[in-house]
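Q: We require from you a single protein entry containing the residue sequence and its fold in token form, and nothing else.
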Amino acid sequence: MRITRVTIVKEKAKPESNINDLLMLFGESLGLFSIRDKDKSCYRIFITLIKALKMKVELTSDELAAQTGLTRGTVIHHLNRLMAAGIVVNYKNKYFIEYENLKSLVASLRVGMNTLLDDLSGVAEKIDDTLNL
């Protein structure tokens, strides 16, 4: 499991959601896109990486910058965030989504969350015992 830091945000799909709305919902639910990202840079990079996943190709930061119309610095900034979340991998200066598809990403998140919650439950039990709660 590579997921290291993801913020889960409860979002709901609108009944009339199209694929772009669903992709935005998916990324927002994982806390990937921030309010400060006015030009939706991270979203654009994420979409480009999803397309690359579909075509089974890996992209350099320069290729991502060219395809998204963003500066390489902006691309690198967002790639670092996506890598910190464990969603994107860098291998030999190529970036890609590590998972076969988004469903397998969610499955990995589920395993990671269950492990985290199990560990946290053990800590909570020790605290409760120590404090006689």
Notes: The first strand starts at residue 88 and ends at 91. Residues 19-131 form a domain with the Arc Repressor Mutant, subunit A fold (CATH 1.10.10.10).
